[in-house]
Amino acid sequence: MRLSRFFMPILKENPKEAEIVSHRLMLRAGMIRQQSQGIYSWLPLGKRVLDKVNAIIRDEQNRAGAIELSMPTLQSAELWQESGRYDAYGKEMLRIKDRQDRPMLYGPTNEEMVTDIFRSSVKSYKDLPLNLYHIQLKFRDEIRPRFGTMRSREFMMKDAYSFDLTREAAEHSYNKMFAAYLRTFDRLGLRAIPMRADTGPIGGKLSHEFIILADTGESEVFCHKDFVDFDIPGEHTDFDSVEGLQAIFDKWTSVYAATSEMHDEAAFNAVPEGDRLSARGIEVGHIFYFGTKYSEPMGAKVQGPDGKEHFVHMGSYGIGPTRLVPAIIEASHDDNGIIWPASVAPFDIVVINMKAGDQACDDTCELIYAALSKAGKDVLYDDTDDRAGTKFATADLIGVPVQIIAGPRAVANGEVEVKDRKTGARETMTIEAAINRFVA
Ligand code: ATP
Ligand code: MG
C-alpha cells in the first residue's frame, strides 16, 4: 500500500475527549471515528488490525471444533418473549418497531436465536456435541459508553454457543473454549487471566471472565502472581481429549483469581503476601455454562440413547474484538505511539522514503516495496513528500513492527537502515540484506 493512496487521517494534536492512552492513540493514528455516542466507524488502518484480530479468533475457534455461521443483528422480540428475557433485559436493549408495528430489537447477544436454529433441525444426540459461533455486531445501550471502542454501544463480539446431551459433555465443551481462549489471547500478545465470575443476566452455573491486567481497566481484580508464568496450551492440543482439557482447566483454576464481585478476602489472604496481585483489569472474554436455562423454555431437546427426549445443556462464549484492539494498545505502547505485536500489526513493514523525488531514493524504495510485497508481506510504502521528521513520527505512531528507512546518504552507498519499532534498535545494511532478512 502506498501511503499517498491510502486513507489514514493522522491527528497532530491530542484529542481532548480521550481519557486513556489507547483511545488517544486510536484517534491520533486515524483508526476509528465516532459517528454518534458510542458508535464508531473503523477507518482503514483500524479495520486492518480488527480483521487480523478476528482471523486469530476464528482460527482458534475452528481448531477447537466450533463452526462458523452468521446470524442477523436485528431480531424479533417474539424469541425473547419465549425465553422470558424480553421483559427482564433492561434499557440496554434497543427496541425497534418495523413498519407493520412488529416489535424488533438490535441483538445484545444471541442465545435465543441460536437456540431457535438448533431446535429447528437437531433432533438426535448423534448430532452432538455442536458449537456454533459468529463474529457479529451487537448493540447495548450502555449508560456510560467511554474509552472509545473499549466500551461502546455498538461493538463486535465473537459469540459461540455449545449444545450437549449431558452436563459432563457440556463441561468438556466449556473446557474446549477455555483452552481456545488461552491460545487466542496469547497469539494476540496478551496475558489474559481466567477469573471466576458472576453469571449475571445470562444466568448459569459456571463462568469465567478473561481479564488483562492494565491500570486503566474498569474491573478491580485479585489474583496469584503465578498466572504470569503458566504455560499456554500448544497448537497440537487434543481438543477431543476429555482428561487433557480437564488438566488444562484444573491447572489454570488452581490458584486464586477473582474480580471484585466474586472476591473472597479470606481466601485471598491465604495466598502468601508476596504472591498476591491486586490490580485493575480489562475483561476481554467471558464464558458461561448455563445448563438448560434456554433449552427448557424454548423447547430445545434431542432424543438420547435411552430413546427419551432431553433438554440440551448449553454454554455461551464471548470475546470482544473491538475491545481487544484498544486492550492490546493499553498493553503495548510507548511515548511515541503504538507498538503492535506482529500477529495483529496493520502492516508488517513500513518503507520510509526520506526524500521522495530523489531518483536513487525512489528507485531503492520501489525495489524494496516490490520485493517484499511479492514475498507476501503487508508493506506500507511512505512515498509522500512530507518531511523526514513527520514520516518518522507517523511510522512510530502507527506502530508497524519494522521500519526500513531509505535516505540519500545511505542509498548512495547501496544501503538502508532497518529499525525495530519496539526496541528502537537501528541497523545499517545493504539493500539486498534488508530484503533477504524479511523474505527468508
Ligand atoms: P462488561 O462487564 O464489560 O459490561 P459484559 O460482561 O456485559 O461486559 P459479556 O456479555 O460477557 O459482556 O460480553 C462478552 C464480551 O463482549 C466481553 O468480554 C467484552 O469483551 C465484549 N463487550 C461487552 N460489552 C462491550 C461493550 N460495551 N463494548 C465493547 N465490548 C464489549
Ligand atoms: Mg461479561
Tell me the layout of helices and strands:
Blueprint (H helix, E strand, L loop, with lengths): L20 H8 L3 E5 L2 E4 L1 H20 L3 E2 L5 E3 H7 L1 H4 L5 E4 L5 E4 L4 H11 L8 E10 L14 E11 L2 H21 L4 E5 L9 E8 L5 E6 L17 H11 L4 E3 L5 H5 L6 E16 L3 H4 L2 E3 L5 E3 L1 E7 L1 H11 L1 E2 L2 E2 L10 E5 L5 H16 L4 E4 L5 H11 L3 E5 L1 H5 L2 E6 L5 E5 H9 L1
Parallel strand pairs: 3-7, 19-20, 19-21
Antiparallel strand pairs: 1-2, 4-6, 5-6, 7-8, 8-16, 9-10, 10-13, 11-12, 11-13, 13-16, 14-15, 17-18, 21-22, 22-23
Helix pairs in contact: 1-10, 2-6, 2-10, 6-7, 11-14
The site of magnesium ion has 3 residues, from β13.
Short description:
With 440 residues, the chain is α+β, with helices and mostly antiparallel strands.
Top-tier CATH class of the largest domain = Alpha Beta
What do the pLDDT scores average to? 96
- CATH architecture of the largest domain, by name, is 2-Layer Sandwich
General shape: globular
Rg (CA only): 25 Å
CATH-derived topology of the largest domain: BirA Bifunctional Protein, domain 2
Q: Could you state the CATH homologous superfamily of the largest domain?
A: Bira Bifunctional Protein, Domain 2
Bound molecules: adenosine-5'-triphosphate, magnesium ion
**Count the strands?**
23
Strand content: 25-35%
Low-confidence stretches: none
Structural class: alpha+beta
Q: How does the major sheet shape up? A: 9 strands, mixed
In total, the number of domains comes to 2
**H/I helix tally:** 14
Helical amount among residues, as a percent range?
Answer: 25-40%
Span between termini: 21 Å
